[in-house]
Specification:
Radius of gyration: 19 Å
Shape: globular
CATH topology: Alkaline Phosphatase, subunit A
Helix content: 25-40%
Number of helices: 15
Oligomer: single chain
Number of strands: 7
Bound molecules: zinc ion
Low-confidence stretches: 47-58
Distance between the termini: 20 Å
Order of helices and strands: EHEEHHHHEHHHHHEHHEEHHH
CATH superfamily: Alkaline Phosphatase, subunit A
Number of domains: 1
Mean pLDDT: 93
Strand order of the largest sheet: 2-3-7-6-1-5-4
CATH architecture: 3-Layer(aba) Sandwich
Structural class: alpha/beta
């Protein structure tokens, strides 16, 4: 069973307001289709289903906590990224929560980013999706290719790992290189590798079409039990507050998604598209937002149901630990959050090793 984690930095579920939200404006036919004619907006989620994991469920939405949109190929949920901590969610602590299943911001007492501080780094090294899965015999990969200058900057100490490469390298998994990109074993951060030519000056880098990049994501994911692709340009576009650039970025992303969806076998595993915090969905501010982030699960209904059951189980245990048994209303209304993702992936992939 496979799990492809498509990580989009800085993408929340925002309002249906095309003057501030590029998701309400950009032409994204593949995503639109996948979501049964809905855009990736908070309004795509239906009214809350007040059903817990251990009650009988009728349909996939009953397996999740909080509101959900269920279509033929996908289930969309919202994840709380604030994690009970004041302030705006940040990348290092949010990504660490996704990768470890631990409420890292609550342990720190604040949200932190963009790069991990020593405390966040410690959480990541102690146990994350990559090293936990590798220890239990699953193979994992980060599908991004890194240029030579990245490795030299890390080696010289001029650059610190961000949370995801730190998690990967702490598992003993090698980051992919320019050679991997050339030989089709990795994907550039901008999907097409155009930036490798124009910004890094690596003129010989082969360019992929957006559709081919999506197809390559699907094909590479079949080589691993768990693979992740990190797309951080979405957070940059959010900070940039340029609506035209943001829409153009989303339209590129949608073409990649088209190639990915055409090549993906829904019975081979699930694709999870999620984020660490909101940003891009509200260009009225150059800061992050407190909006929930999307958790878009793509795959056969039975596989989605399995994934959601593990996520709900994790959420229920977490919520019961936080609230009294008499506070059942609060328990029912609580949404999934970032910390429910790692246990859901581990459960889905059949590993019993906790992190
Ligand atoms: Zn940011």
């Amino acid at each position: 069973m496979k799990c492809l984690f498509l990580f989009l930095d800085g993408v929340g579920l925002g309002p249906d307001n095309p003057s501030v939200n590029p998701f309400a404006r950009a032409s994204m036919p593949n995503l639109h289709n996948l979501l049964g004619g809905n855009r990736l907006l908070l309004s795509a989620l239906q009214k809350p289903k007040l059903r817990t994991a251990d009650q009988p469920s009728h349909g996939l939405s009953g397996l999740s906590r909080g509101p959900a949109l269920v279509t033929a190929r996908a289930t969309l949920l919202g994840l709380d990224a604030c994690l009970g901590v004041a302030g705006l969610p940040q990348s290092a602590s949010g990504q660490a929560a996704l990768l470890t299943g631990q409420n890292v911001p609550a342990s720190l007492g604040f949200h932190y980013g963009p790069k991990p501080n020593p405390a966040v780094a410690e959480f990541l090294r102690n146990g994350n999706l990559f090293n936990t899965l590798e220890k239990s015999g699953r193979n994992t990969a980060l599908l991004n290719a890194y240029p030579p200058r990245y490795f030299s900057a890390i080696q010289s100490g001029r650059r610190l790992y961000s949370a995801i490469p730190l998690a990967v390298t702490s598992a003993g998994v090698a980051l992919k290189t320019s050679q991997d990109l050339v030989t089709g074993r990795a994907i550039a951060a901008d999907f097409t590798a155009n930036g490798w030519r124009t910004q890094l000056g690596l003129k010989d880098t082969p360019i992929l079409s957006t559709r081919d990049a999506g197809e390559r994501l699907a094909n590479l994911a079949q080589n691993y039990d768990f693979s992740l692709f990190e797309y951080w340009l979405s957070d940059y576009a959010g900070h940039g507050q340029d609506m035209e650039a943001a829409c153009s970025l989303l339209e590129t992303l949608d073409q990649v998604l088209g190639g990915l969806l055409d090549a993906w076998d829904d019975w081979s595993g699930v694709i999870l598209l999620t984020s660490d915090h909101g940003n891009l969905e509200d260009l009225s501010t150059r800061k992050h937002t407190t909006n929930p982030v999307p958790a878009l699960l793509i795959g056969a209904p039975e596989l989605r149901a399995s994934w959601l059951q593990f996520a709900s189980r994790a959420a229920l245990a977490r919520i019961q630990a936080e609230t009294t048994h008499t506070d059942s209303k609060k328990q029912n209304e609580e949404w999934l959050n970032l910390t429910d993702v790692a246990p859901a992936i581990l459960g889905f992939l059949g590993t019993r090793v906790g992190i």
